[in-house]
Amino acid sequence: MAARQTAFLQQPNRALRDEGLPPTERYIEALQKLQRTLQIPWSEPRLTGEVLARDALPTLVPVWEDLCERSVEANVYYSPRYAQALLQSVEGYQNVRFAVVWDRSSLVALLPFTSPRAAVPGLRAAGRAWQSKYTFSCTPLLDTNLKIEAADTLLNVLASINKSRYQALGRVL
């Protein structure tokens, strides 16, 4: 009777057993397919990004520390204590701003960056990850569970930094 019952069960999808993909990626793909199939509205993160000035740091510290604990790759140079210490002392003259990404009230990505005083479209970068002689890694902090979505949103935030400056330059030319 057991053999008869198994005949009615669906065979596993062979596409999920693709040997070319690591098990983690197969698992993630299967979960994403299940979420799409079930259409769970709360399963899709609603990420938003923004640029924060240095004066917003005191309010950012608790969620920033939490992100450091959940980060894909630890970067002590972008931890709140280290970054704030540098910004309050030897790097105090730098115009460092922070590109951040939120999933509701949770911080999921952070990248401190600087912008050159005279950025020329096509000739100079509009911004770059903050680096000094006291920082050796410019790896952004990305949430482990939302790393791809957070990185994508972070890139969109960075791409929008000087868009208005370039549009104004186009009107002048």
Description:
By secondary structure, this protein is an alpha+beta fold. The chain folds into two domains: 2-38, no CATH class; 45-172, Aminopeptidase (3-Layer(aba) Sandwich). The chain is 39% helix and 16% strand. β2 (96-103) and β3 (106-114) form a beta hairpin. The longest helix is centred in the first third of the chain and has 16 residues, at 23-38. The protein starts with a helix and ends with a helix. Residues 1-12 and 165-173 have low confidence and may be disordered.
Q: Mean pLDDT, nearest integer?
A: 76
How big is the Rg? Answer: 22 Å
Molecular shape:
elongated
Instruction: Give the biggest beta sheet.
Output: 5 strands, antiparallel
Give me the CATH fold name of the largest domain.
Aminopeptidase
**Total individual domains:** 2
How much of the residues is beta strand, in percent?
15-25%
CATH architecture of the largest domain: 3-Layer(aba) Sandwich
Number of helices: 6
User: How far apart are the first and last residues' alpha carbons, in Å?
Assistant: 82 Å
What low-confidence regions span 5 or more consecutive residues with pLDDT below 50? 1-12, 165-173
Q: What is the structural class?
A: alpha+beta
Give the beta-strand count.
Answer: 5
N-to-C series of helices and strands:
HHEHHEEEEHH
What's the arrangement of secondary structure elements?
Layout: H1 2-8, H2 23-38, E1 47-52, H3 57-70, H4 80-87, E2 96-103, E3 106-114, E4 128-129, E5 141-142, H5 147-159, H6 163-172
Antiparallel strand pairs: 1-2, 2-3, 3-4, 3-5
Task: Briefly characterize the structure.
The protein is of the alpha+beta class and 173 residues long.
